[in-house]
Amino acid sequence: xxxxxxxxxxxxxxxxxxxxxxxxxxxxxxxxxxxxxxxxxxxxxxxxxxxxxxxxxxxxxxxxxxxxxxxxxxxxxxxxxxxxxxxxxxxxxxxxxxxxxxxxxxxxxxxxxxxxxxxxxxxxxxxxxxxxxxxxxxxxxxxxxxxxxxxxxxxxxxxxxxxxxxxxxxxxxxxxxxxxxxxxxxxxxxxxxxxxxxxxxxxxxxxxxxxxxxxxxxxxxxxxxxxxxxxxxxxxxxxxxxxxxxxxxxxxxxxxxxxxxxxxxxxxxxxxxxxxxxxxxxxxxxxxxxxxxxxxxxxxxxxxxxxxxxxxxxxxxxxxxxxxxxxxxxxxxxxxxxxxxxxxxxxxxxxxxxxxxxxxxxxxxxxxxxxxxxxxxxxxxxxxxxxxxxxxxxxxxxxxxxxxxxxxxxxxxxxxxxxxxxxxxxxxxxxxxxxxxxxxxxxxxxxxxxxxxxxxxxxxxxxxxxxxxxxxxxxxxxxxxxxxxxxxxxxxxxxxxxxxxxxxxxxxxxxxxxxxxxxxxxxxxxxxxxxxxxxxxxxxxxxxxxxxxxxxxxxxxxxxxxxxxxxxxxxxxxxxxxxxxxxxxxxxxxxxxxxxxxxxxxxxxxxxxxxxxxxxxxxxxxxxxxxxxxxxxxxxxxxxxxxxxxxxxxxxxxxxxxxxxxxxxxxxxxxxxxxxxxxxxxxxxxxxxxxxxxxxxxxxxxxxxxxxxxxxxxxxxxxxxxxxxxxxxxxxxxxxxxxxxxxxxxxxxxxxxxxxxxxxxxxxxxxxxxxxxxxxxxxxxxxxxxxxxxxxxxxxxxxxxxxxxxxxxxxxxxxxxxxxxxxxxxxxxxxxxxxxxxxxxxxxxxxxxxxxxxxxxxxxxxxxxxxxxxxxxxxxxxxxxxxxxxxxxxxxxxxxxxxxxxxxxxxxxxxxxxxxxxxxxxxxxxxxxxxxxxxxxxxxxxxxxxxxxxxxxxxxxxxxxxxxxxxxxxxxxxxxxxxxxxxxxxxxxxxxxxxxxxxxxxxxxxxxxxxxxxxxxxxxxxxxxxxxxxxxxxxxxxxxxxxxxxxxxxxxxxxxxxxxxxxxxxxxxxxxxxxxxxxxxxxxxxxxxxxxxxxxxxxxxxxxxxxxxxxxxxxxxxxxxxxxxxxxxxxxxxxxxxxxxxxxxxxxxxxxxxxxxxxxxxxxxxxxxxxxxxxxxxxxxxxxxxxxxxxxxxxxxxxxxxxxxxxxxxxxxxxxxxxxxxxxxxxxxxxxxxxxxxxxxxxxxxxxxxxxxxxxxxxxxxxxxxxxxxxxxxxxxxxxxxxxxxxxxxxxxxxxxxxxxxxxxxxxxxxxx
Length: 1313
Description:
Organism: Morella rubra (Chinese bayberry)
Transmembrane segments: 953-975
Domain ER membrane protein complex subunit 1 C-terminal: 768-985
Subunit structure: Component of the ER membrane protein complex (EMC).
Largest sheet: 6 strands, antiparallel
Protein name: ER membrane protein complex subunit 1
Low-confidence stretches: 15-29, 433-441, 991-1099, 1264-1272, 1306-1313
Number of strands: 64
C-alpha cells in the first residue's frame, strides 16, 4: 500500500514537471537558436547621400540585385529596402524636393517615388516607348525643399517630363523617328531650354533644344565627324562633350555653343607619351575635368573654354574617381582612390585647384577585398567649421565600406547577395581532453548558466534573467563551436559568389569564418572577364585520415561563353588557403563527380569540354588506374536547349591528336530531337548524385508491395510549345501545351511521357527517389498547378513470396542492365497550388528513413514545407480504411497552405533563388539553406525529432527532479507505513465484541435468513435476496444431521421476540468490523432446548476478491463511469454489484473518482438500483464513508430518495445512516435544507425498516442523545415521529424514536410498545 501511494506521488510530480517544461520551451527561450537570417542588398551601383541637419543621416543606394535601400550612415544598418525583381533593373537613383527618392528602372520605362523616411512608394509612372535606348534621369537641384520640379526621363526612345509631386507626365517627345541614340540630357541652371545630344550611327552628332515647359522642339542641329565615335559621350560642361574616336587613339571634344557644332581632335599620345594601348573614358561627372585610363595609368585632363585639353595629373595606381560634389558656391570637390602597399589612399581635391588637397588619408585594407571599383563622397561640417569628408567605397568582392577620419566606420559583405553555388564541409574533430569548464569558459559561468536555465524552466526568471539566458546561449552555445558535433549540425557552408570570392559560413550562427578572393577568378590579361561556375567537394578525409584537411574544387570560365577557357582552384576548407590553381585550361561545359576516391581521399572528377572530350582530375597515375577500371561504365548527357536536342555520351578512347593521357574522346550513344515547331526545352532536372534511398520496397494498403524504380540516370525534361515559352498572355490555351518526359540517360529510352494541354512554364521541378514533382501554370484554369509522377519497377513484382526468398528463386540479386527494357508503371496526379514558385527542393536525411517534405520557395520569398503525402498520386476522394491506416490523405483539388508550415516563419529571403538541403548525422533532422539577396539557414525535422532530446534540455533540472522524487518516495513510504499501522490498531479496537456499542444488528452485516438472526446463529447461514422485490435464491441442499454441529432453526421460521432488538435481517452483507463478528463466539441462547429440526449444510459463500484484483476492478469501473457511455456506465455498476454484494471484502479502498461515478447514477432510472447496492456495500467500510461524503453522496441520497423505488430507497436510507456515523456526514445532513422534509416523507411512505433508518437520521439531525447545540424542532416533526411509531416499526426503530421524542421534548406521547 505504501509503495503504491509513493508511485502515485511520483507520477503526479512527473506530470507537473513535464507540463512546466512544455509551457516554457516554445517561444522566447528558443529565439535564434536553430536558425539565422542575414539581410543584404548587393553590389552598389548608384548612391545618393541625405545628410540634412534634421532627421537621420542616411545614404540611398541601388544595386546590381535590383534593390533600392536606405542605409544608416552611423552603423550601416538597413532602414528600409525594396527588391524590384529580376526583370526590373535599376537605371538611376536621385532625391527630389528633399523628401522623395526617385528611381528609374526597366530600361527607362518605370519611374517611382519613394518616401525617404520609411520607404513607402508615393507614386509610380509607366513611361511607354518602343525603341530600346539608354536610360537617363535628370532631377534638378533646388534650393527650396518642397518646390515642385520637372523630372526629365529618357528611355525607350522618348523624352518625358514628369511632375515630382504626383508622377504625372506633363509632356513627351518621341525620338524614335529620328534614329538618334541620345547620350546626354541636361538643363542648365536657370534656363528653360533642355538639351538632348546623341549620335546617329557612328559618325553623326545631333543636338536638340527643347522647351522645358511645353516640350516643343526649338532647334535641331547635326554634324558629321569623319573618324567616327566610340563608346559613350561624356558631358564635361554645359556646352562641351568628350568622346573617343573609332580607333580609341584620339580624344574628340564636341562644342555646341550657340547652337553651332564643332569638333576638336587630340591624340592621346600627345598627352600621355607612354600610351601603348587603347584608352577608356571613365564615366565621372566632373565640371571641366574628365579622366581616362590607359593601361594602369589614370590621367586627369582639364578642358579649357576653347576646347583645348590639358593634363592635370597622372596617377599610376589609381583605382576609382568619384563624381563632383558641390562643397560651396562655385566650388566642387571630387575624390581619387589609390592602392599603395596594401593600403588605400583617399585624396579629396577641388576641381579648380588641383595642387591643394582637402583631404588625404591612408587606410589599411584587407587584400582579400580586392581593388576599389566605385567611390562616392559626402561632406559634413566639423566642429571647427571646416569641411570633412566621408567616402562610401565599393570593393572588388562587392563589399561596401564607409571611410571617415582614416578609419573604416562599418563594412557590409554584400558579395553574399550574389551566391553562385554552395557546398558543405565538415568541421575538425574536437580533441580529447577538453573539459566542460574550458568549453564553457570557466566553472562559474557553467554553474551560472544552469542556474539561469533552471529559473527559466520553473518560470521564475525575470526579464533580465531571460535576456541573460538568451545572451549566454547565443554567445556560448555549442552551436558556434569550431568543432564537429555528434548530431552533425555544425558544418561549414562553402559559398562561391559572383565576384569570384569564397566564403566559409558557420551553420551555427552564420558568421564568416574565412573568405578568399580567388586569384584565378580575378581579372587578368589571360582571363579578362572571369566568372565562377560551381564548387565541388574535392577531398573529404575520413576518420583514418584526419591529419588531412578537406578541400573543395572551384571551377570557372574566362568569360560567359560556354566554350571559353576554364580555370580551376583547389582550396583548403579549414584555413581558406588556395592549395593549387590551374588555368586557363580547356573549356568547362560540364563537371561530373565520380563515385571513386584515391588513397588520399581525393574524389575523381570528369570535366567535359565544349567538344565533348572528357578530362580526368586529379591528374595522377593512381587516379588514371582507378578510372581505367571503370572506363566502360561512365555515361553522361548533354542538353542543347536552343537546338532542342538531348544527347547521350560514353567514353571512347584517349584523345587523338593530343598528347594528354588524361584526355579521352567520347562517342554519341543516342539523341532525342524535339521538333522546333512544336516543342522547346525549358527545364531539365536530374537526381542528386548523393541522394540516399532507404528501401526500394513500398508497402501499400492491401498488404501488397510495390518496388520503386530507383535509377541515378533518370532525367526529367519539360518542353512547351514555342508560343507558350514567352510571357503570360502571349499564347492562348489552345496554342500552348506542356509536355514532360522521364528519360533514361544511359540508353536514351523515354520511360514516361505526359502532356498538359493549355499549360505553360516556367517549370520548377525536383526529382527524388522514384518520383518527380513539378510546378507550372494552367492557362485554362488561370491557376498554378503542381503535378506528381511516381514510377515503379514491375520486373520485381513477383518478389512477394517468402518461399521464393528462402529458396533463392527470386531475382533481387540478379544483375541489372539499363539496356534491358524496363517493365515500369507510373502513377500521376495534379493539384492546384496557390503560389507562383521561385525554387523547389526536397529534404534529405542521412539514411533516407525520415519522410520527405517539399521545400517550396514562393513568390513572396518565403520557404514553405509541404508534406510529400499531399502529393501522393494514390490519393482518392474516399480512401478505404486500409488506405487511411497507411496515411493516405483524402483527395482535394488544391494543396493546403498551412501558415505554420513556413520554415522561414515571418521572415523573407529577398530575391530567393535556390534552396539547398544537407543531411545531418541525426536521421530525423536535415539542414536547409536558402539564398538570394538574403541568406536563411535552419534545421528541419519532417517527422519531428523522434531520436533526440532538444538542445535546451535542462540536465540540471532532471538531476534535481530525480533527487527530489527519491526523497519524496522515501518520505511517503515512511508516512504510509505509519498510517497503515495506525489503521490496523484502530481496526483491532473496533472488532472487540462489545454488544452494547453496536450500531446495527448482525442481520444487517451477515448472511441471515428471513427470520431475525439470533446471536446464537452459526456464522454460515443461507443467503436470501436483498429485498422482497428480488427473486428468491434456490433453497440449499438438505443434508443429514451432524451431531457435532449445533442445531439451528429452520430458515422458514418467524422472528423470535428474544432477537427483536436486531434489525436489517434481509441484507446479505457481512461486516467484518462489526462488534458481532462471524468469528466471535456466540452467547448462549435464551432457549436451551430448541425445537428439533432438520439440519443441513448452508451453501458456501464465494471467497472475497483479492486486493489486487479488486483494485484493478475499481480502476476499470472508474474509467467506464467517468468516460463511458450510458450502457457502459450501467455495465460498470452491474460489475461492481456482482463483485461486492455477495461477499464484500474486509476493507475495500474506493477512490473518490469511483465514488463520484456511483453517486452520479443515483438519479438515473436505470442505474439507481445497482448504484444503491454498490453504495451500501462500499459504505460498510468506515474509510469509504468519508469518501462518499466528500463525493456528495449525502446530498444525492437526500434528493433522490423520494424518486426511488421502495427497495432502492431502503438501501439508500441505510447507506445514509452509515454515512451519518462519520462527523462530516452528520454535519452535511444537518446542513441540508431538504433532509428533515425528506426523512418525514420517508417515514410516512416506507415500511418498518426504512422508518428505522429515517428515525436514525433524524436523531442525528436533532442530536439523538441530547445534543445541546440543537434548537427545539417544530411540532410537525414530533407529530410525524409519533405517527410512525404507532405503525409497523422495528424494535430498534421504536427505541430510536423514543429517544428522539425525548430529545424533542414533546408533551404528547404516542404508544411505543
